[in-house]
Amino acid sequence: MEQSVAKPKRFKKPATFLVVLLALWLLPSLALLNLSRSYTNSLAQIEELGIRVNELRQSLYFSEPLRVSHINELALDAQLVYSIRLQIESDFQHALFRPDVNQLLYVADQFLEKFDEFIPIESQVQDIVDNIKILRADKELSPKLKPLLNEFGVVVFEAMYSDNQSSSATYRAFDSILEKSYSLKTEEQDALQQLLADASALLSDYAQLNYLVDKIKKNSVNEQIIKLEAEFHDRQFNLLLVMLGLSLVTMITLVLWGVRSRKLIQQADNELSPEPVTDSSKENASSAVKQPSDDSSVLEIMPTSKHSDLKPQEGVNVTSQKIVQQNTEEAPVAEKHIASVTDSKPAIDIEDMLETLDGDAESVELLLGVFVQDHADDYTKFKSLLTKDETSAARIVHSLKGVAGSIKASRLAIIAATIEMTMKQSRAISEHDLEELEAAIKASIDAAFEYLDKQR
């Protein structure tokens, strides 16, 4: 007697289901991860803007003579703040799913506008001091001019820094110096009268200085930065929750699919077993047929299970081989990447600087001039401080990294960031990195000199 055997109901293509499920989990996860990375980069830019603004604001608390002596450094710091502001505006212009930074850019513009009004007034003080030094250094200075210069300096600086000096007394003193200047030679008379005119203009502008300083100190750029940082952190936390929820749904789907597959396999095994027969002869025949039937079912199930077991093992082997290969080749690949970056770009990308600064060639010259003046000996300082004061040495490479980013010196920025990370991890700096740092500084200084010479 023949028996009809029902075929087991299983997934015809389980691999397709797994691939689709993996794609539905992987693609959104990668998109969320990329968005989170962009949030991190944007947050780093905003934090850098806040640091630079605070440095400028803290410089206003210096005493006025000290502040005047550092006026060039303050002007350079203001240019750096402006370049960071332009970079933030460029990055956020066409970005999706990011907080609104228009209010931050507005208050940053107000801060820079007041600072641009503040710097020329302070620069006038430095100019007057320099002119007095030039006149006093003249070997042919007449004996009558020297006491007049001393009197002029006393009157000007008392008017600026003393609360007891009245404006009427100041201008009476100026009139007295002017009358005495008529007895001097023509050249000395013109020089002293020019100083008096410059001092009068300075004192009229100096009345606005306290107002400008107060406006700069009360600027709300820090409050806007704090709000944006909080919003960024909230959004990153929400992204984390979404990624966790997506992963949880994927895991639950896999578990349910596994349970359903097991039930279908058990149902198929039950359908393969023969129905009981009451007749003894049929029972014997059934028992004779049962053994090969069961064996065939086992054979039918075993290859499938073995095949499905082999796939993960093969995947694990291939993955482990890839990991080993990646670990063995990671160092040379990183070196090749750094080499390709440094070979393909100039030491200082002048065109990129001009583009960042809206074609302002004067700002480029100012940045490069200050870079040459302040950082030409940084490698020597770094080497000497490396064994004595690691904190100061780390500040040097951190400063180099920031300045390199501002002047678009990619090679210097890469090696400075590498050494800074090495020091943060308390690892020894290799000789290769030290040589690369020295070479990068030299190449950047040479490139800056070359550009400045062409502009003269």
TrEMBL record:
<dbReference type="GO" id="GO:0000160">
    <property type="term" value="P:phosphorelay signal transduction system"/>
</dbReference>
<dbReference type="GO" id="GO:0004672">
    <property type="term" value="F:protein kinase activity"/>
</dbReference>
<feature type="domain" description="HPt">
    <location>
        <begin position="359"/>
        <end position="456"/>
    </location>
</feature>
<keyword id="KW-1133">Transmembrane helix</keyword>
<feature type="modified residue" description="Phosphohistidine">
    <location>
        <position position="398"/>
    </location>
</feature>
<feature type="region of interest" description="Disordered">
    <location>
        <begin position="269"/>
        <end position="298"/>
    </location>
</feature>
<dbReference type="InterPro" id="IPR036641">
    <property type="entry name" value="HPT_dom_sf"/>
</dbReference>
<keyword id="KW-0902">Two-component regulatory system</keyword>
<dbReference type="Pfam" id="PF01627">
    <property type="entry name" value="Hpt"/>
</dbReference>
<protein>
    <recommendedName>
        <fullName>HPt domain-containing protein</fullName>
    </recommendedName>
</protein>
<feature type="compositionally biased region" description="Polar residues">
    <location>
        <begin position="283"/>
        <end position="296"/>
    </location>
</feature>
<dbReference type="InterPro" id="IPR008207">
    <property type="entry name" value="Sig_transdc_His_kin_Hpt_dom"/>
</dbReference>
<keyword id="KW-0597">Phosphoprotein</keyword>
<keyword id="KW-0812">Transmembrane</keyword>
<keyword id="KW-0472">Membrane</keyword>
<feature type="transmembrane region" description="Helical">
    <location>
        <begin position="237"/>
        <end position="259"/>
    </location>
</feature>
